[in-house]
Amino acid sequence: MALHGQGVAEGGARPLSLTEAIRLARLNSPLTIAARGQVRSSDAATRSAFGTFLPTLSINAGGTRSSGSNTNPGGGLDRIQFPWNFSRGLQSNIEIFDGGRRWYNYRSAQANQGAAEFNQRLQDYRVALEVKQQFFNILAARESRAAAEAQVAQAQEQLKAANARLAAGAATKSDSLRSIIAVGNGQLAVLQADNNLRVANANLTRLVGTTFQVTADANELEAIPTVAIDSAQLLRWVEESPTVASARSQIRASQSAIRAAKTPYMPTFSLGFGLSGNRPATGFEPIAGEYGGQNSLRLTLNYPIFNGLQREENITRADVALDNAQAQLRDARLTTEQQLTTLLGSLRLAEARIAIQLASVEAGEEDLRVQNQRYSLGASTLLDVLTSQSTLNQSRFSLIQARYEARSARAQIEALVGRDLP
Fold this sequence. Notes:
Blueprint: E1 14-16, H1 18-28, H2 30-51, E2 56-65, E3 69-71, E4 77-79, E5 84-97, H3 101-167, H4 173-208, E6 214-216, H5 231-240, H6 242-262, E7 268-281, E8 292-302, H7 310-376, H8 382-417
Helix pairs in contact: 1-3, 2-3, 3-4, 3-6, 3-8, 5-7, 6-7, 7-8
């Protein structure tokens, strides 16, 4: 199996690009496998519906052996002269007119096939969403680990400064103890990030279905592009989404089913043709010899006058199915529009938070630098330094969370509309 980025990442996990991870997940996921199977079944149903327009053809052959005797005209018994009797035949039938039933069934099968294809597209993007979320979890865990390592390094520098001031008699022992606690908190953050990374790697491995552990390729930490969309494009995305498109296909299938349910009120005409032959024989000789032949041509008219109200029941069931399909389409449109509006709002908010948190991190780094210098000169307390450090740490982790939320919202929009955003 060819993999992008054939290195070995943390914990022996093999790095995968996002594109490769999605491809493997779509190949191995039970959801996508079931969706592809549904498409195959629907395609077979469509071909079967088309096949009803073609004549049926069958052949038969048989042989019968009789034993015993027959009564002759004189009252005596004669042994059966030809104990074997062979037969063969060919039959063909075609329905000439059925009120349009086959055509409507064919149209309904086509609509169901379209719905199955839209469902496959929907499942492909849902699986892609799961992969992306775990992929982004891995990226966030790595960012968190880098931030935690920076936190540890800064805390260790503060510990050195606190110990130096304590030895010089310019600080109390509590400054050293507080610095030790700060180092421990940073180390705990590193451990937490490592655990989050292992969990995310395991989840990604399950999704892609490999026998070896995988992780996100380090080169996938790209910038988050801005999504530009207007109200007209929003409406187009809603109408073209797999959920809405599948609901429209279900309506077409239900409309054809109603028309098909009404066709039993019409008569049916069918045409049949048959060839048959028989040959008596004294022994088992099914091939040798000549067969006596008969030809038949049948034209059949069938008009059901009353069938126990089954036609009325079928029409009612089909009409109820159409009402349900129309309600599902209406709800699918509204739900998709509502979810898309919510996700776009979340994406816009996350993008704004990223810009704010970038500025907060920059300001926090500068504030911590100043506080460290002031603490070294004895112009501030360790509490001021730790407060500045805590603010910087929070800004870093808030930036990581904002990036994750932006990536996740973008992936959810793609899953909802069934397309990759530019």
